[in-house]
Amino acid sequence: MSELSEKILKNIAKGMENDLLSNGELVQIIELCGSYLNLCSRTEYAKQNNISYNGAKKNRTNIKLFNIFFVIDNE
Questions:
Q1: Can you give the pTM of this predicted structure?
Q2: pLDDT tens string 15-32
Q3: In what order do the strands lie in the sheet containing 61-65?
Q4: Do 50 and 24 have their domain in common?
Q5: Is there a single domain that holds both residue 4 and residue 33?
Q6: Same domain? 30 vs 57
Q7: Are 16 and 28 within one domain?
Q8: Are residues 12 and 43 in the same domain?
Q9: Residue 39 near residue 71 (C-beta atoms within 8 A)
Q10: Which range of residues forms the domain containing residue 3?
Q11: By C-alpha distance, which of 60, 7, 54 is closest to 38?
């Protein structure tokens, strides 16, 4: 993990623990990260790209967040 990412994670944790960040602000951070990743559920990604669900599952970068699988397509 890079020094920058460690600092970001530490500051987010500190912000939440000390009530410096609200839930809404934390959601905004998550949404911003998702937009940079071009994060999309497998089902939605398959629909948007006219491929099968299994095509998205087997041939794209998949991650599991909050017990849901997403496709990362930021290349």
A1: 0.81
A2: 999 999 999 999 999 999
A3: 40-41, 68-72, 61-65
A4: no
A5: yes
A6: no
A7: yes
A8: no
A9: yes
A10: 1-37
A11: 60
